[in-house]
Each structure stands twice: as structure tokens, then as C-alpha cells.
Specification:
- The complex is a heterodimer of chains A (403) and B (243).
- Chain A has 403 residues and is α+β, with helices and mostly antiparallel strands.
- In chain A, 56% of the residues lie in helices and 17% in strands.
- Chain A contains 13 helices and ten strands.
- Chain A is elongated.
- The mean pLDDT of chain A is 86.
- Chain B is of the alpha/beta class and 243 residues long.
- Chain B has a domain at 45-67 and 96-238: 3-Layer(aba) Sandwich (Rossmann fold), CATH 3.40.50.300.
- Residues 1-9 of chain B have low confidence and may be disordered.
- Classes of the chains: A alpha+beta (403), B alpha/beta (243).
- Chain A binds chain B through residues 1, 4, 7-8, 11, 15, 309-310, 312-323, 396-397, 400, and chain B through 63, 66, 68-69, 88-89, 92-93, 95-97, 100-101, 103, 107-109, 111-112, 116, 120-121, 123-126, 168-169, 172.
């Protein structure tokens, strides 16, 4: 019986191709909008979290000063770290993969007649480890270079491009302020960070070289720490905070004069934001689904009036009220889910194009496709029921007399 | 359903029996007696013409016979079973299995081919697609429309449309065919063709036919003619001059 009802519905839709396609237009637009929004939003979320994790996963960053001053603007009156702090951390805290103390400054880098303003970062090989940063060419620092604070450097790909264009920089020297320094390695490119800054624009020197020859002190501006795989960064963060309070002799009840950033927190905060935005866009698109549903109800009501006589004929030749109800309901559901299918196809196509235009990855979300389909079918049931009941309640004699 | 009624059926009973059937429309002051006490027996295989002026109650009587409406009082026995008090769905099932309808305005589904129109009652009977198609083609053949199966009503003449409607009515092999002015919209040549078709079904298949008509020429095809006046049976006589 169900197949027969479906057959009747399909026949009816086929008889009114033009009107049927206009009827489902609302659903098509609604579903495709939802699919496009959610798919693009998912791609953006994925991109943001990929960019943030390119900073290095399991990464913690300890810096002096209190939290809440925003990135970059954290130099306060708080004491800088010293090498002893980094050593204490790697000695006292368990579950760490690497600890990289960092001192950085802005410098002017010069090679031949090329001039580029960049940042110099003084650290150890551990910096490359915590940032999960492979070399494209050359080598890391040797232990001797690190101990002695030799003026050798590993340059980021932006610096390489600006100072050497296509030349091989290995073995060549660059000048950082008054300091001349030999290039021993070149880093692979990481591109823009999740915040839009160029991650490849810096020169890495041994920490001691920066402290003695450029900064002229033994301060450490921050410590990068990476936890071992499977170790909760949250727990490591707690332990570091406890240790630092001890080292810096902060009395109980007093505020920290340092801050530990957890990249995992950042990842969830950033992806959380894009997820909320996606949700909002999806909700706006869902409203158009509702409008599409009302469109279907409207056309079905018109159709019931228009086909009163037909309903009368069907009732006279033996259709039960239930058969007529089913016929109109199935017709509405077939229409709306047909619209849903077309909308899903169009929405995915638009998402593919949109993902390319916005250069975010195309991430197919099977869940939302299923939800969109079920929802569009449900729209048919909800908005088709009222007209279908009107049809089923008709009196056959009256309906047959209807012109 | 069919077996249920047949097993209870009193074989000596008439096919159709109306006893003191009344139908009142409206209530109180506005009440209108469409039928005021009808007693009528129709036996199996009869061909009955129902005549009478407008408002005489013949259409109401047909609606009750067709189980589209229930009487206000009185009983309607079909093969001895009281079906006047059936529920809406029960009446629909009864129509589906025992009755065929032919209307003045043909009442075919537009933009639907002849064969699909004829298949329609079989769909509600739950017949398989293959059975449906075979029976529908056979019914169209019986009304002489072989070759016109895939034409829609708009592509058929009035007489052809009415023959499609007849095919639709007889495709389920009903016991009774109820025809409401089947020739009202047709010229005399087509009318006669339709009446020939109906007469053939009555004679060869033993289908009982009850037909409302205004035209004495058409009533002349019936074996019995009933006149309605003011909601009453005015005269009920065998047709002596069968065409």
C-alpha cells in the first residue's frame, strides 16, 4: 500500500512539474544555505585549529608579568627569568619533552645591500623541538656553539627570502646590528600563524650570543616548554605555576607575577569561537528552512482546494480517509525531501566553491547532511499534515459537486 | 469484507432493500425532507432507471444507495445486511468492493492517462501493479477503447471519456453500477453508444445497474423505471417497451 501511495504522489508531482519545483525552492535554498554555512564553518574551524597546532602541540609558554595584558604587551615591572629558572623547570617537572629559554629582540638584519627588519631569538636547539620545526637546509647548533655563545644563526624562510632571494645562504654571513653572524641553517616555512603574523620572520641564535652580544644582560624573556605525548598540559601547567611561585618567592595569597600559556586552551578557545559563529550562521539558514516549510503548506492547501473534486472521486471509488491523508502527506514529504536532496547537492557544491575562494579546507560533515535531510523530510510531515487532514475530512458528496 | 457479507447473506433477500428510508437536511425550522419514507427493492441483475424532477430526492436516494451518505432513519439492507449504520471507513470499504460509480461529468483525473484512471480503484484495493495493468486494459477493451489507453481525458471525446469512466467503474467487477445521468453531457449518438455499453454489461455480466436520468429515451433502455416526486416513489413499473 505504501508503494502505491508513493506512486500516486510521484504521479501527482510529475503532473505539476513547474509548480512542484517552485514549491520546493524554499526548502532547496534553506537546506543548501545550512549545508554551505556549516561546511564552510567546519573548514574554518579546522583551519584555525591546524594553524594553532602548527605553533607546536603540547606547547606551554611561561613569561614574566601578569595575565590579561595581551600578547606582546606583557613587559611589566616583574622580574625577568634567568637561566636558573629554565634549568629548575627541566629538573623539577616531570613529563617534559623539551624546555627552551628564549631571549628576543628586534634587530635590523643586513646582507650585502639587502636590509630587513626582523626579530632575533636567542635559544637552544630545544626551541626547534618545542616548536616542532624542521630544518630545510643546514644544521642545528653544536653544543660547543651553544656553550660558547658563538655568533652562528639559523634563519627563518622569510628572512632568507628577503636577504638572499634565490642564493644559498649557508656559510654566508649576515649582520645583526653591529654583530656579524654566520648562517648555518635554514628553517622550513610555517606560514602565517592563526593570528595572522608571519611565523617565519626571525633569526635564531644561541641564547648566550644574544644575551652577551645583543641584549647585554642575562635575562630570559620567556620559556617555551613542550610536554611529552600523553601528558596532560593542564597538569604540567599547574606544576610549573607551583614551582615558579616557589622560585620567585611569592607569598600565599599574592598574585603570580608570571603567566603560563597553554596552547591547548588557545586551540579550544579559538575553535570554540568559530563553532559559535558556525552555529549562528546555521541558525539563520534554518529560519529559511522554516519559511520553505510554510511555502509547502501554502501550496498543499491550494492544491487541496484545487483538487477537491479529485478527492471526491477517490473517496467515491473506495479510498479511505486515511488513504487520502496519506496521499497528501506523502506528497508533501516527497516534495520536501526531494527539495532537501537537491539542497544538499547544491549546498555541497557551493561549499566546495566557497572553500576554494576563501582558501579554507573543504570538510564534509556527514552528520549535518543527514540532519538536513531528516529535517527537510520532517518539514514535509509537519507542514503537510494540516492540508492533508483538510483533504481527508472532505465529504465525498460535497467534494464531487465542487467545481 | 466481501466474504463476510456473503456468508451472512440471506439468499432469499433482495440485493438492495430500502425500508422506510428518510433523509432530512438541516435542523429545526430549516429542516428539509429530501426523502420521506422510501421503500424499494432491487434484485440482482436488474437495470433500473430513476426519473423525476429536480429536488424530487432521486440524487439523495442515489447517494444513499451509493453509500456516500447515510439515511436519517430507516434501514438499507445490502444482501440482507444492514449497511445504513456503517462508519465512514466501513462505507468506503463497502464502496470499494461492491459498487461502481458513473457520473454525469465523467469525473476522470485530468492529465492522467486513460489506463491510469481505470487503475485507480485497483490501487485502493491493493492490487499488484501487474494485475492492475492487466485488468485495466481488459476493462478498456470491454468498453471499446483499445488503442486509446495512454490518452489523457483532454485528448478524448466526451463519449470516450464516459467510456473510460465506465471501464473504471467495472474494473473491480462490482455487484452494482450506480450511474448519475451518465448521458447528461453527451449528444444523442454518443448517449446511445453509452447505453449500449451499459446494457451489454447488464446482460452479459449480470451487473445490476441503477441509473438516474432525465431523458425518457435513455430510461427506455432500462427494464424498470422508478419515478420520484417530492421525496417519494411516485410510480414503479417494469419497462414494457425495452429498447
Amino acid at each position: 500500500m505504501f508503494w502505491n501511495v508513493l506512486l500516486l504522489a510521484l504521479r501527482e508531482i510529475r503532473r505539476n512539474v513547474m509548480r512542484s519545483s517552485l514549491t520546493i525552492l524554499g526548502i532547496v535554498i534553506g537546506v543548501s544555505a545550512v549545508i554551505t554555512m556549516v561546511t564552510l564553518g567546519g573548514g574554518a574551524t579546522e583551519q584555525v585549529s591546524a594553524e594553532i597546532s602548527s605553533l607546536g602541540s603540547n606547547l606551554l609558554h611561561v613569561r614574566p608579568g601578569q595575565r590579561g595584558r595581551g600578547p606582546g604587551g606583557t613587559r611589566s615591572t616583574a622580574d625577568m627569568f634567568k637561566m636558573g629558572d629554565a634549568e629548575a623547570i627541566s629538573r623539577e617537572i616531570s613529563g617534559l619533552a623539551a624546555v627552551a629559554p628564549v631571549a628576543s629582540q628586534a634587530v635590523q638584519a643586513i646582507s650585502g645591500n639587502q636590509n630587513w627588519s626582523t626579530a632575533v631569538i636567542g635559544s637552544t636547539n630545544a626551541y626547534l623541538q618545542v616548536r616542532d620545526w624542521p630544518l630545510e637546509d643546514g644544521r642545528r647548533f653544536t653544543n660547543g656553539e651553544l656553550r660558547a655563545g658563538k655568533t652562528v644563526c639559523i634563519i627563518g624562510s622569510t628572512v632568507r627570502k628577503e636577504l638572499f632571494s634565490n642564493r644559498n645562504p649557508l656559510g654566508d654571513s649576515i649582520r645583526l646590528g653591529k654583530l656579524s653572524c654566520q648562517v648555518v641553517g635554514v628553517l622550513e616555512s610555517k606560514g602565517q600563524s592563526g593570528f595572522g603574523s608571519d611565523q617565519d620572520d626571525f633569526v635564531l641564535l644561541p641564547l648566550r650570543a644574544v644575551q652577551r652580544r645583543i641584549a647585554g644582560n642575562t635575562d630570559i624573556g620567556g620559556i617555551y616548554i613542550s610536554a611529552q605525548d600523553g601528558i596532560s598540559t593542564e597538569k604540567v601547567k599547574k606544576n610549573i605555576e607551583r614551582l615558579m611561585r616557589e622560585l620567585r618567592r611569592i607569598a600565599p595569597g599574592q598574585d603570580d607575577d608570571f603567566h603560563v600559556n597553554d596552547m591547548q586552551e588557545l586551540v579550544s578557545a579559538m575553535t570554540g569561537t568559530t563553532r559559535v559563529l558556525t552555529g549562528l550562521l546555521g541558525a539563520v539558514a534554518a529560519v529559511s528552512l522554516l519559511v520553505g516549510g510554510i511555502g509547502i503548506m501554502n501550496i498543499m492547501l491550494v492544491s487541496v482546494t484545487e483538487r477537491t473534486r479529485e478527492i471526491g472521486i477517490r473517496l467515491a471509488i473506495g479510498a479511505l480517509a486515511r488513504d487520502v491523508l496519506m496521499q497528501f502527506l506523502v506528497e508533501a514529504v516527497v516534495l520536501s525531501s526531494f527539495g532537501g536532496v537537491i539542497g544538499i547537492i547544491l549546498g555541497l557544491a557551493a561549499a566546495v566553491v566557497g572553500a576554494r575562494l576563501l582558501s579554507v579546507p573543504f570538510v564534509l560533515n556527514p552528520g549535518i547532511v543527514a540532519v538536513a535531510f531528516v529535517f527537510s523530510a520532517a518539514v514535509g510531515v509537519v507542514f503537510g499534515y494540516f492540508p492533508a487532514r483538510q483533504a481527508a475530512r472532505l465529504d465525498p458528496i460535497e467534494a464531487l459537486r465542487h467545481e | 469484507m466481501k466474504t463476510m457479507i456473503s456468508s451472512k447473506a440471506d439468499l432469499s433477500a433482495s440485493l438492495i432493500e430500502l425500508k422506510g428510508v428518510t433523509k432530512v437536511y438541516g435542523k429545526g425550522q430549516a429542516a428539509m425532507n429530501a426523502l420521506s419514507g422510501i421503500d424499494l427493492r432491487i434484485d440482482k441483475g436488474e437495470f433500473v432507471a430513476v426519473m423525476g424532477p429536480s429536488g424530487s430526492g432521486k440524487s439523495t436516494c442515489m447517494n444513499i444507495l451509493g453509500c456516500l451518505d447515510s439515511p436519517t432513519s430507516g434501514t438499507y439492507l445490502f444482501e440482507g445486511v444492514d449497511i445504513g449504520k456503517l462508519s465512514r471507513d466501513q462505507r468506503a470499504r463497502f464502496r470499494r468492493h461492491y459498487l461502481g460509480f458513473i457520473f454525469q461529468g465523467f469525473n476522470l483525473l485530468s492529465r492522467t492517462s486513460a489506463v491510469e484512471n481505470v487503475e485507480l480503484p485497483m490501487i485502493y484495493r491493493g492490487a499488484s501493479a501487474a494485475d492492475r495493468r492487466i485488468l485495466a486494459l481488459r476493462a478498456l477493451e470491454a468498453v471499446g477503447l483499445t488503442g486509446w489507453e495512454s490518452h489523457t481525458p483532454a485528448e478524448l471525446s466526451g463519449g470516450q471519456q464516459q467510456r473510460v469512466a465506465i471501464a473504471r467503474a467495472i474494473v473491480t467487477a462490482p455487484n452494482v453500477l450506480l450511474a448519475d445521468e451518465p448521458t447528461g453531457n453527451l449528444d444523442s449518438v454518443r448517449s446511445r453508444e453509452i447505453m449500449e455499453v451499459l446494457t451489454t454489461f447488464n446482460r452479459e455480466r449480470g451487473i445490476t445497474i441503477v441509473m438516474v436520468t432525465h431523458e425518457p429515451d435513455m430510461a427506455a433502455y432500462a427494464k424498470r423505471i422508478i419515478h420520484f416526486v417530492d421525496g417519494r416513489v411516485d410510480s414503479d413499473r417494469p419497462n414494457t417497451e425495452v429498447a
